[in-house]
Write a structure and sequence with these properties.
- The structure holds two protein chains of two kinds.
- By secondary structure, chain A is mostly helical.
- Chain A is built from four helices and no strands.
- Chain B folds into two domains: 74 residues, RNA polymerase sigma factor, region 2, helix turn helix motif (Rna Polymerase Sigma Factor, Chain: A, Orthogonal Bundle), CATH 1.10.1740; 101 residues, Arc Repressor Mutant, subunit A (Orthogonal Bundle), CATH 1.10.10.10.
- Classes of the chains: A mainly alpha, B mainly alpha.
- The interface between A and B is large, with 55 and 73 residues.
Chain lengths: 94, 218
């Protein structure tokens, strides 16, 4: 008995969050063997997860500012102003 | 910010020095932090909370917290990693205080009708020529499109997606934070991923296989 594409996509997504059972793996493999659409869905979903995480990981240590839209000028000014205000006489507080 | 306390803690006149002498090369000035890391921090916060004013407040809180504990920064990590770490905690606190009691029903099947017929077959087959994640992520407008798509998710799905996919948190941790069962979380994530994939595809390629066939349920 073949599982449906609907069921297969569900298993594909869940495999990113939990280990599938033996039978689930078997059902899924059988389905993917027959179904190009779901095979593409699987590739795309896995790639998207991997790449999105990488993109965000790069945020913290990569030099990617050039790609980022700068924060609005007024936000920048407000932040600086508030920080100056809070740190000038808060110097001694901890 | 009502943090204008003038305390005498023994370190009165001079601003405290960072622990090491060579730290002098890193001027501890929060305004400089804004210049150096502000944009990254702001964009990072915006991914997790979709309101600009909240993102701004969180960045501000994080920078202030960093300033107060600046002598704990030993240079073991980069300045940015350190600041983002503090920001992440602020975001988590914020979301924790807010997500309680968001008791939205998790329906398992109705939304899937947008993608599958009654026999569970694709209405439009995913086609490798139209959805290429690598190509998507290299486009210049990545961040703008990504935000637009994140905004189509309901708050809890967005939160789950960000925690799981972006931060790669354990599912058990996320279940606890969102107060949902594991089964519910899988459904939420299944839906979020499917929606994100469709949205990103639509925005970048106008690809037909990702076109919604029904209206999105909010």
């Amino acid at each position: 008995m073949m599982i449906s594409c609907k069921k297969a996509t569900e298993l594909i997504c869940q495999s990113l969050d939990r280990p599938l059972s033996f039978w689930e793996r078997l059902e899924l493999r059988l389905h993917l063997w027959m179904c190009g659409g779901c095979s593409n869905f699987k590739k795309q979903s896995e790639a998207l997860d991997r790449l999105l995480h990488k993109r965000f990981h790069d945020l913290t240590d990569g030099d990617i500012e050039s790609e980022l839209e700068q924060m609005p000028e007024e936000v920048c000014e407000r932040l600086k102003h508030k920080l100056r205000e809070a740190t000038q006489d808060g110097e001694a507080s901890s | 910010m009502v943090e204008r306390r003038v305390l005498n803690t023994g370190k009165t006149d001079n601003p405290p020095q960072a622990s090491d002498t060579d730290a002098a090369s890193e001027p501890l000035d929060p305004s400089a932090w804004v210049d150096r890391h502000g944009t990254v921090m702001y964009r990072y916060a915006l991914v997790r909370v979709n309101k600009p004013e909240v993102a701004e407040e969180l960045v501000q809180d994080a920078l202030l917290a960093a300033w107060r504990s600046r002598d704990k920064f030993k240079g073991a990590s980069t300045e940015r990693t350190w600041l983002i770490g503090i920001l992440r905690h602020k975001i988590m606190d914020h979301l924790r205080s807010r997500s309680r009691g968001v008791g939205e029903q998790v329906s398992h099947s109705d939304w899937l009708e947008e993608f599958f017929d009654e026999k569970g077959r694709w209405l439009r087959m995913p086609d490798p020529s139209t959805v290429q994640p690598e190509a998507m992520l290299e486009k210049e407008e990545f961040w703008a499109v990504f935000h637009e798509c994140l905004d189509t998710l309901v708050p809890r799905a967005r939160e789950a997606f960000a925690r799981r996919v972006i931060e790669q948190e354990e599912t058990a941790t996320i279940c606890k934070a969102l107060e949902v069962t594991a089964t519910n979380l899988w459904v939420i994530l299944f839906r979020a991923r499917t929606q994100m994939r469709r949205c990103l595809t639509l925005k970048w390629f106008n690809a037909s296989d990702a076109e919604p066939t029904g209206s999105r349920s909010e």
